[in-house]
Amino acid sequence: MQKHSNKDVNVNIGIEAEESIQIEGVSATATKFGESLRGIFRWRQSFFKLVWKQAIIYYLIYVSITLFYAFALDTGGQANFDAVASYLARYTSSLPVVLLLGFFTSTALNRWFNIMSSMPGTNRAITLFVVSLKDDVADGRARVDLYIRYVLLMWLLTFRIVCQPLRRRYPNLMAIQNAGLLCENERLLLEKHKGQPGGTSRTCSLVVYDWLNALLRETSQKGYFLVANDFGRNIDAIQALKKGGGTVIKFATKNIPVALIQAVTIAIYCYGLVSILSHQIAEKHYLTSVMSGYFPLPYALPFFFYYAWLKVGRIATDPFGNDEDDINMLNVFEGHINGAVRLRNSYGIKIPTSTTEDNPFFLT
Amino acid sequence: MQKHSNKDVNVNIGIEAEESIQIEGVSATATKFGESLRGIFRWRQSFFKLVWKQAIIYYLIYVSITLFYAFALDTGGQANFDAVASYLARYTSSLPVVLLLGFFTSTALNRWFNIMSSMPGTNRAITLFVVSLKDDVADGRARVDLYIRYVLLMWLLTFRIVCQPLRRRYPNLMAIQNAGLLCENERLLLEKHKGQPGGTSRTCSLVVYDWLNALLRETSQKGYFLVANDFGRNIDAIQALKKGGGTVIKFATKNIPVALIQAVTIAIYCYGLVSILSHQIAEKHYLTSVMSGYFPLPYALPFFFYYAWLKVGRIATDPFGNDEDDINMLNVFEGHINGAVRLRNSYGIKIPTSTTEDNPFFLT
Amino acid sequence: MQKHSNKDVNVNIGIEAEESIQIEGVSATATKFGESLRGIFRWRQSFFKLVWKQAIIYYLIYVSITLFYAFALDTGGQANFDAVASYLARYTSSLPVVLLLGFFTSTALNRWFNIMSSMPGTNRAITLFVVSLKDDVADGRARVDLYIRYVLLMWLLTFRIVCQPLRRRYPNLMAIQNAGLLCENERLLLEKHKGQPGGTSRTCSLVVYDWLNALLRETSQKGYFLVANDFGRNIDAIQALKKGGGTVIKFATKNIPVALIQAVTIAIYCYGLVSILSHQIAEKHYLTSVMSGYFPLPYALPFFFYYAWLKVGRIATDPFGNDEDDINMLNVFEGHINGAVRLRNSYGIKIPTSTTEDNPFFLT
Amino acid sequence: MQKHSNKDVNVNIGIEAEESIQIEGVSATATKFGESLRGIFRWRQSFFKLVWKQAIIYYLIYVSITLFYAFALDTGGQANFDAVASYLARYTSSLPVVLLLGFFTSTALNRWFNIMSSMPGTNRAITLFVVSLKDDVADGRARVDLYIRYVLLMWLLTFRIVCQPLRRRYPNLMAIQNAGLLCENERLLLEKHKGQPGGTSRTCSLVVYDWLNALLRETSQKGYFLVANDFGRNIDAIQALKKGGGTVIKFATKNIPVALIQAVTIAIYCYGLVSILSHQIAEKHYLTSVMSGYFPLPYALPFFFYYAWLKVGRIATDPFGNDEDDINMLNVFEGHINGAVRLRNSYGIKIPTSTTEDNPFFLT
Amino acid sequence: MQKHSNKDVNVNIGIEAEESIQIEGVSATATKFGESLRGIFRWRQSFFKLVWKQAIIYYLIYVSITLFYAFALDTGGQANFDAVASYLARYTSSLPVVLLLGFFTSTALNRWFNIMSSMPGTNRAITLFVVSLKDDVADGRARVDLYIRYVLLMWLLTFRIVCQPLRRRYPNLMAIQNAGLLCENERLLLEKHKGQPGGTSRTCSLVVYDWLNALLRETSQKGYFLVANDFGRNIDAIQALKKGGGTVIKFATKNIPVALIQAVTIAIYCYGLVSILSHQIAEKHYLTSVMSGYFPLPYALPFFFYYAWLKVGRIATDPFGNDEDDINMLNVFEGHINGAVRLRNSYGIKIPTSTTEDNPFFLT
């Protein structure tokens, strides 16, 4: 377990903030003078990082065409080029780039927020079990350990389905066993389940879900809960964990229609292509023809705004990937393990200050 | 039951992901260079698959008109044609295509997400029953089997109402009986219900709902529940199943107004028609007149973007149909059956690792 | 009661689907070739049905102006007409028709979806009571009947407030008494309530709500519930019914601001007027002047798209009216009565298949 | 108490509909021919009522400028005027009026709907207490009265914070005492609370909230509840009342940013100013120059559409004010008092029809 | 504790309204004549306050260019300047400023509303504990004090993560101890936790959460709760507090993509730059050239509308900062402390009016 526990990775799902959230490019005082400007010159997760490779290619093509036009074409060729370029330029305006893009990105971000909101954590399930288990149970601590391990295992098996980095870290059940989250006989049961009709690596988390239910049932039958009702409350917590996972999977797999993503991508590439081709047409003045020929900013900027906007949308369609803006699920899982260790140690702890001690908080 | 259980169809409602979700056209690392381009050349569920037939027809008409204009019309005819085409072209811009379309698709996708979110599953109802039933009940396993069968039956009868593929697989009650989900005498009761005032094939699921309530009541009266409160919790789970089904049906039947769909469809066809007719007007230069005559891309592309967008909206209006992007309800039902088998077998199981065994998870 | 029970009206709130939902203008396979076209030629609830009368009037005015211009005006008059028409035409473009309309319709449809979602049904309240009442209660069946009648009565009195067709069917308390939903002495109590300060026909449903609470209280005090907790659960169900009704009334009465509806209506009529007046201005070519004079499609189509869109919005603002797209509350109420009869008969029923019988569902 | 109870004000929060909801400007049959037109000529809450004063001022300025231009300016002055007017007219188009306005109004209406949805009522809290109190409690009726008074008091003290008309009706605690909702010693306690650190007129409702909790606690300790669990349920109802009030206050005080409202207001006034100034520029024809000079409709209409839209947004930002479209909180409070009287009288009532009597509802 | 308790800061989370909410720039009667105008001349939180520094800089640059153009450039230079300016001006129109901006601000405000709605308070948790603790517990008051202190501590440690002003007021655990919210030994435990793997200042609130659970558990084991079920209800309240905090942190840290904020900021600065450069081009008339040269309002106004809109969006992205529109968390915390004092004093209080006294509220 220890090997992931390097000090940098200390994120729990509830508490995953960095030391200061200004780092997100928005300072805490947005109205201070000059504050808007500062955020522009940031590299990590930035607009520039998203587009710099594409910008270089764009510039190379742009200048090649300028040079080709100026030195390789004769007057007739130039006239033909002008005609074709102006012909193409005209239809750019009828491309519904902005509206396709706006529709796509707002849909993608909505989905993203929904996934964020419904991402289940392990905290509630574990806390409830720890709190509702009697203190004087013989195998109390072992029982808590087993329960915590199953909850973490179910969480991991659920999110492996949608999250590539988790799949890469834990490529198969053996890897999970090596990480200490799975016993030999449990792994064999899961492998056996995968051999049955309807059993795949995706339904393994449901088997663990059955184990959790059975464990709760046994705990209840042995009368280990403080209050009889606690059985139902723990069952509900496991249900919520299962349902939250199911919602995330549903959102992640029933994606935004591919046709829409393709349409918007094609539209933007067309827009970019035309913006390159049509750049020399109108300029007759010397200064502006040089500018138009070698400084493509006025043509390139709108394209790259669209392009970055598209990228933002695409990142949002896969929230568990490797992009910088994605949710880092390895860290999140690490946080769940740390939280689980904390909660396990809290089984049977005493409050630090007894109620008969001096209390520093003088409410008058 | 076995005949649908081919290994490929192993989807459970919570866990219906394919092995890798990149297949959805969005790779896990959207920011990697060249990644955007790759998704464009995909066929399944693609933009191209949606429009290729229409594109061929569009092209044939387009070229026919070019040829007709060039070879069949004399100068006067051409002038007339030009006048009419330019007259029509002018009003294209006042067609509120984009706004009608945007309104329609966003409404349709909202509905689609709502249906997705409220789709009820059988897992919770079955789990609760299995977990809360005492171990030492004489007919325990038979009782679990009966309960599971009724839950699946109610789910099936509910979704048959809105889902054509399910209706085709199970065209009548006899087909459901043959699939092993219905007894002879139960079928007769349902047939009898359909003969009563207000009874249709649509209210059959409500009869099964009554049976489930009666079964729970009987189980409670016989004192077979572990805790008395479990009766109410099971009743609630059945209520939630019924309500979820009702919500799906409400959304599916109270559709987006037909008039809106017609208006947006007519607007887009008009746009397409005018884009074909008006293509030869302005080009006097030889190169561009050839392009304009035989390469309709600049005119066709906006039209097909709109057309594909419309299609996406129409697909979203019927989420349970036969389209590739639709929810495959046969698979979902198969998944529910597999899940039911798993849960049935989990009645009375022991946890694989006892709490006194060695636990691999060393929390320090 | 029987008189509404014609076989055609058999809709229950959860299950109000027609036999096949394709009838809604969207086929189950939206991607099939030619499928989009078919929906256009539908009459019921269609775009054409919404606008055909207005279209005739539009055409008559349009042609009258053409004839008046051509035959009644001399050259000077024509010049004046041209000047005025072109003056008016210019300002059409600055009318914020599309944005007002988009804002209005999306607000209206949002409200409509919210009403749909919060519409309470009688099923849950009745089911809970039937399920939680002991079998061996002396007046059990009569008690169930009374409870069901009160629930239906409360539902009816609530929805009469917002739904004109229900008001027309049941114009006063006497009509409800005649329908068998009200006793003589109950009606007198309600009439008396209306005479008290703050009592109107709108608060009658609250009196019935008090009766329901009193009935539950009495049932609880006599110990007729299976489990003591059931009292609270039944109270909650009645609360939910009351609250759902209140939400529907709130949404229905706090409507979209009248000023907004007027503004958007005036804007669209102005748009239509200008589109008629300005139609002959620009055309000098013989063919197009004839087209412009007698075939107003290019001018009329945008107007009628806006007009139909407005209509859709207006229909959505009153979801309980007489329009084809409205929710047919008479059918819904009929469905509630049918459901109530079913649930009443389910009091004390046995499940059709005993748990010791052969079970057709072989889970292996 | 009686003085507000005039018969006209008989609205309860759930049931605040007027006799017929068509009065809202939308008839029940929106598709009937001519129906759209009728709503236009309505005065109450209308577009015209919102703008008529501004329209008169607009017209006076408009005509003054026309007259000044025609009779006071010489040719040079006219040329200068033309130049300035056309210079200003040009930039109107770059004003983002529509988008600022659309953003502002949709945000404002969203907030409004959220406040509407979360507005708490007194019904649930009172009903629960009345229903769960034993019949044979010695001071039962007095206890109910006290509870009801505290609930109403808490509601009133909460909504006084956000609602000016309520503040005007009940300007201080003495006025509330005179209305019979507060005892002398209770008022003194509240005044004393206001003198303590952190105590203002805004936190008074929290003191009443403490009283309610104490009253419930005492009722529970004396064993006056039918079921032990009812204590918790009543506490929850009071919590919900407190939370709902807090949400309303949060929404009402954390308003839409002032800067946004100012920006949109300035943009619209600029738009109006320029529409007045630029009206004589282009018209050279006699008829249209007269129209342009004295009939400002084409210039004024877009402006007044924007203006009315802005007003609708501003009304929505303060839902508890004195505007016609606002929620009439005095009526709502009146309705709560009437409902409270009804619920108080329902303590210990019998159902009108005993379960052994003849039941008019023959379910077959 | 007393040092923050100056009388001005008396806000509780539920009740944070100022004396009159008109101060928010929207009067209570938006339809009164002249009301719209008044709000424009407000300074606090105003449009003008947001942009005045930028406006001065804008004006200085603007006039410098005018002077440079008029006096420093010769005719050729002016021609070159005109060419470049007009070249740049042309591409302004293709900048997707409005759509980027609209997308950004609506996303930001949605997030802001979500944070507002999910911000947890301490009231519910404390009330539940106070209400459910028995009166005759020996260390009752000390127990309540300890519980309240832990709840406040957990709230503070949670919001310190996202809120800079709270971090500045309480820079470390020692500062919190000095404020009386932390004991020496508790602080040492928290410091020790920070030294463990996965422990940071961000996970400290989870340790306090464990203490709260342990305290509840001990209270339950000693039988100090009035009703056994109260244990579970208190656990749930603490869970809700933890979850609410987690949601706020999630929203605050997973911010709007930086690339989007950069793109929209760059687009607006480009727009502003071009609006400055392109201002002298077209004006040949003396009056308008002077206006164009020294009165930049027509060019500046659209830019500053966009700029202010951007600022509003940026303020919304960090709701806990130092801006005037931000939520003042120091006041909110102060309010929580005041509320805690009030609730602590309400432990064991009697209701002010006994149920046998005269009741001023005569319900007839």
TrEMBL record, chains A, B, C, D, E:
Family of this protein: Belongs to the anion channel-forming bestrophin (TC 1.A.46) family. Calcium-sensitive chloride channel subfamily.
GO BP annotations, alphabetical order: chloride transmembrane transport
Principal location listed in the UniProt entry: membrane
Membrane-spanning ranges: 56-73, 94-113, 258-281, 293-310
Protein name, per record: Bestrophin homolog
One cellular-component annotation, GO: chloride channel complex
Species of the source: Daphnia pulex
Subcellular localization(s) per the UniProt record: Cell membrane; Membrane
Membrane topology term: Multi-pass membrane protein
Function, as annotated: Forms chloride channels.
A Pfam short name: Bestrophin
InterPro entries xrefs: Bestrophin, Bestrophin-like
Domain of life, per lineage: Eukaryota
Presence of keyword Electron transport: no
